[in-house]
Amino acid sequence: MNTDRLYDAVASKGHVCIGLDTAADYIPLAERKKAKNDAEAVLAFNKSLIDATWDVCACFKVQIAYYEEMGISGLSAYSKTLSYIKDKGCLSIGDIKRADIADTASRYAKAHFKGEFEADFVTLNPYMGMDSIEPWLKEAAVLGKGAFVLMKTSNPGMRDFQYQEIAESADKNIKRVYDVLGSKMSSLAQKYRGKSGYGMFGVVVGCTEKDEAAEIRRAYPDLFFLIPGYGAQGGDAQTVALLLREGNGGVVNASRSIITAWQKEEGAGNADLSFAAGAARRAAVKMRDEIMGVIS
Question: Is 184 an active-site residue?
């Protein structure tokens, strides 16, 4: 089960999940000009970052929107990025946030759990209902894959729906809409549990609300967390630590703060792929050590 592999990766390499949300203008200009097109430049940039950081991060998250924007060549770069991550022996999250039901969801699952867009995990939007999750479960159970289901995100708009209070509930742990989702995913974890103690499907939980973090971890001890919101959105290592269980059970995503770290370094005007990759590694190590420092 991939959740067990991710648990082991966190134990050995730390909690950082590097987001390859790669836009062409994140690439040093000289390197971008060398490429035939932006998709080729993005792929070369991604490979250099993966080479520089695979041993200091638990996994890579590849956001498909940045590749769809570039059309067919962009989707080719998306596919080749996922393959390169796999070749390095690392885990990938296809950040696709799909939401559909029945046969359509099943076909999405087949497309992103195997074939040219194969990833180890995907992200899913559950708000059509559990019948939008079940087709993914069937495919994942056969293939050993996993998913992270949006539960409590880190964007300001999360309060529009996720934070709506439930008027009455027989289960006292259910207070808000996101708790309903968490409860249902915990039930699934009972059926699909790995050796590490976590369910096959985890949830997305932002690290921007420190006062709720410990309570959320207590409520969902068997769910692995994909944790956005670190850094620029206000999340910090102290909040991350509260969302973990015995120092594991979650990966913390960072995208632009790592992949564009080169832009803030002296000499950025003459940057090449090696320069950018070195900056990314330093940023990833800094983030990893910040989190480990608090946990320790």
Answer: no
